[in-house]
Prior knowledge:
The complex is a heterodimer.
Chain A: H1 9-18, H2 23-38, H3 47-51, H4 59-72, H5 77-90, H6 96-108, H7 112-126, H8 131-147, H9 149-154, H10 157-164, H11 170-190, H12 204-214, H13 219-231, H14 237-247, H15 256-269, H16 276-292, H17 298-314, H18 334-347, H19 353-363, H20 369-385, H21 390-402, H22 406-422, H23 431-436, H24 444-456, H25 464-473, H26 480-496, H27 502-514, H28 519-534, H29 536-543, H30 559-566, H31 572-576, H32 591-601, H33 603-626, H34 629-646, H35 651-669, H36 684-692, H37 720-729
Helix pairs in contact in A: 1-2, 2-4, 4-6, 5-6, 5-7, 6-7, 6-8, 7-8, 8-11, 10-11, 11-12, 11-13, 12-13, 13-15, 14-15, 15-16, 17-18, 17-30, 18-20, 19-20, 19-21, 20-21, 20-22, 21-22, 22-24, 24-26, 25-26, 26-27, 26-28, 26-29, 27-28, 28-29, 29-34, 30-32, 33-37, 34-35, 34-36, 35-36, 35-37
Chain B: E1 4-8, E2 14-19, H1 28-37, E3 46-49, E4 52-59, E5 62-68, H2 74-92, H3 97-102, H4 104-114, E6 115-116, E7 119-120, H5 125-131, H6 143-154, E8 170-183, E9 189-203, E10 209-214, H7 217-223, E11 235-238, H8 244-250, E12 253-255, E13 260-269, E14 277-286, E15 290-299, E16 306-315, E17 320-327, E18 331-335, E19 340-349, E20 353-362, E21 376-383, E22 392-398, E23 406-415, E24 419-421
Parallel strand pairs in B: 8-23, 8-24
Antiparallel strand pairs in B: 1-2, 1-5, 3-4, 4-5, 6-7, 8-9, 9-13, 10-12, 10-22, 11-13, 14-15, 15-20, 16-19, 16-21, 17-20, 18-19, 21-23, 21-24
Helix pairs in contact in B: 5-6
Amino acid sequence: MSVRGPRKGENYELSVDLNSEYRDKRKDAIKRTIASMTVGKDVSGLFPDVLKNMQTDDLEQKKLVYLYLMNYAKTQPELVILAVNTFVKDTDDPNPLVRALAIRTMGILRAEKIIDYLCDPLQKCLRDENPYVRKTAALCVAKLYDLKPELVIENGFLEQLHEMIGDSNPMVVANTVAALSDIHASATTASTSDQDPAVFVISAGTLSKLLVALNECSEWGRVAILSALARYEAQDDKESEHICERVVPQFQHANGSVVLAAVKVIMIHMRGVRREELVKQLVRKMAPPLVTLLSSPPEVQWVALRNVNLLLQKRPDILQNEMRVFFCKYNDPLYVKVEKLDIMVRLAGENNVDALLSELKEYASEVDVDFVRKSIKAIGQTAVKIDGAAERCVNVLLDLIATRVSYVVQEAVVVMKDIFRKYPSTYEGIIPTLCSNLDELDEPEAKASLIWIIGEYASKIDNADELLGIFVDTFTEESYPVQLQTLTAVVKLFLKKPDSSQGIVQKVLNTATKECDSPDVRDRAYIYWRLLSTDPGAAKSVILTPRPLISVPRTTVSAGLLEQLLGEIGSLASAYHKPSETFVGRGRVGVDKVKSVGAEADERSSAQKALQTVAAGQQSENLLDFDDAPATDGQPSGLAATQFSQTPAAASILSGTSSNPLDDLVSIFGAQSTPQQAPSAAGPAFGNLGGLDFGMSPSPAGVTSPSVGVMSPAAPQAQNQQNQQDDLLGLF
Amino acid sequence: MISAFFIFNQKGEVLISRLYRTDFKRSIADVFRIQVVSNSEVRSPIITLGSTSFFHVRVNNLYVVAVTKTNANAALVFEFCYRFINICKSYFGKIDEESIKNNFVLIYELIDEINDFGYPQNSEIDTLKSYITTESVVSAIAAEESSKITAQATGATNWRRGDVKYKKNEAFVDVIELVNLSMSAKGTVLRADVDGHIQMRAYLSGTPECKFGLNDKLVIDKSEKGISDAVELDDCQFHQCVRLTDFDVDRSISFVPPDGEFELMKYRSTSNIKLPLRIIPTVTEIGTTKVSYDITVKTNFNAKLSATNVVLRIPTPLNTVNVDCQAASGKAKYVPAENVVVWKIPRLQGGQECTLSGMAELTSTTTRQVWTRPPIDVDFQVLMFTASGLIVRFLKVYEKSSYNSIKWVRYLTKASGTYQIRF
């Protein structure tokens, strides 16, 4: 027996009461023991005393004792053996609840000694006449596999589970499927061989059984079955259609997780459907239940919104006319609001842009600073996305600047710069307004944006040299992005108005090359200096060359990853928009693994991409022969990256665009990693910084959040806009 | 799947802890306390630290937390947490620290029953109540009785026992509509829709087969032409007892109801919403020291009906000292803690309208931050009125013994926290 504690104190009193001759007193003592256990006190010393109370007719007391056993069996393995007898006896009890309870508890005890006694009762319970016992036993097999896989295989439990898929009771089927999937998951992560008997292959026969059980079992069971259906590979398009038709009614289920699981199955099997009108019909039926999910509690809503965001990337037409339901309520939690904003921009079109803009303007006057900033960013995205609405967006921004609330003005300036990037020389009229707010700006991003605008339109701003002079004077105190922009803007100014700005350009080049600690700034200064001194004409064509127009990307993740995530709708991965390997598994995932996921996902497209890039690289080299143009563009592409990373509101968009060109670089040079930004709603701030200066130095395109540390595979998708940048970067 | 389940109080103390799987130690609870409870920065409902993900739901100063190490089904985990909360509400009437502490034994029993090895199991409240009870002594239920329970817990109609008997067979149907409105300052409707719930209390003997009919446009258009008051439902969702395949084929709602109270269906409607109350606010800032309010509430329904418990929350600037207000009916009071004027009107007959006029005095401030003007929020209830126009057309009950049953239908339209008017 274990060493007994001193004859006083709480545990001693409990021990006395546990051995009391009165039933009520004993039961009360057990309750108190459990209470102590919950708050974290060590009551393991009472093990033998509690164990004595196991043999009882009182079901509640039995449950309490079992609860205690589950917690301490591991620490007292030699004592657990005393309980085995009662357990085995209980599995023969006439009361099915007692039988189920015994088998359920035995499975979780996790003591080697118990395990050996588990197999026989389990065998019996799997064949029990009562479905409640059978469904409990089915899960117990999964528990056993988790502990000692060989026992499961030796005893033929797997075969038995496979038989139980045909059970007459739908709940048993559901739990069997859950158990088999659980075993499948742990078997596939542990070993790589396909021959492992634990691998759960869903055959055509299983499929029909699952479809039958689907309509009858409980909500949670439906999710388990739907998840299994998602893994089934349809033989032909007939079968895919059949599955879709059988699963569609589940959209009407009250439980949000059933709806999302059904969406998942449909999204997977729709790939195999060839009949266009059926696809259309399925997509049409999908919309209302997705909208309904927005009236669920905020957490469920958030998961739904993240998934809707993914679905929209694949099928932008799903919720075309539903933008209004995504309008934020004043009391929505921030994480919901941010997601709604993102989706609203996705759904924006010529027809609803007015409603959207007045809504966004409303949000921009709310209290929460983060939300206000994101709303203003959304205005910018709308302007870039819809040409016809750009002017209205600019007017809204001007209204906002007029409020003179510091963070509103700063964000508006950042956004204006993006609008200039998209519509060069269109809204020059507002430059004076922007410049008059110069003193208000204290954030690097806003400063850098305004400096960029001044440099870009230096020829049209009379006092450009004065304005830039302010920043040149404080050059060394500014942050690097501001320094880089100041440098470029001054050089632009010089090229446009060489007469008046000789002094300032000398000064800034001097400071940048001599007093600055950032190699990026220094190197850029040297490049400019040499360019200007050797061939001002070349410098002009390098620095003042027109840049490619920006656009809002349609997808935030690569095509391959998008498909993979759509196959996991409702899961954590799809809520994060990250492949699951990045946040589960044993510690950090190897970079190779992450890369291979991306590569497998769209091997072909990335191969093609690489070829394209190489071809483009050759082209650029040709250009190099007769002109300095590529080097030209090489420099702005650093700028371009700055612009890009600042544009989109949501974190995901950030990483998606700004890291793409780099990803290509990475894949060409076989570099190892591309860390991305944090997935949480609070993430975007990290993403920004990373993207800012990669044009000059191939540094990682994002900053990994310390708490999350997520890696992401880099599988870029083809986009005209990106292509151009890729070409240029191919040179590096 | 769910590896562990915790309930924390406001301070981060563990009230309930249950590890379903062994990939965690109990100390994982401390991680949550440090990273989430005592970290005010956290705003996302899911936190992933390393490979561990915490899903949390806050309710009445409690944290209901599920922990997992896998790529779990996030929607399922949250639905499960909310189901747990609902079960607690149904068992204890409320869920807060006190009720959790007082009933922890029962809660352990419950969470073991509704979840096994991280997989949610039967969580139908009615069924659970039949074998997990608040009376402490359940001296070994007779084996036969248990068999019935387990059959119910796992059966094809796991929501109903077969041997229910009532002297009087009655069914009550409550149609409850929650109106969502946001109206812009100019008085245009930005968004108006209805979240409807149909609650049913069925006290019917045997295994009755029910058929339920609404004035659903899609059904009516097919069968009887010429009825104009049909309602367009954007989406319907049903209790698990309803045969979804039947609904998918011909939109008929047929089911075997659980015994007692349950939510038969939820629906959503966005077209032709009748807004029961119309608010006309005129709020003007006079200089920097005063704001004048002139708010009119108009009813928009039949004079026989009335709106009850009407509560308007009218925001005032943060630097308000006092608000002097007169209301034609009801009581209006300035609540400094929330920066709102609360105007309560116990009863408002159809066709009636009433006005509140007031003047808020402000202190002078140095910051020139403009007042953000949060929306006016209106709560109310209107009996026997549906904003969507939905009507229950029939409820047919078929049973072997073909008894007569009495059916009652009630309608209620209400708003709480969702009826917002900007100004």
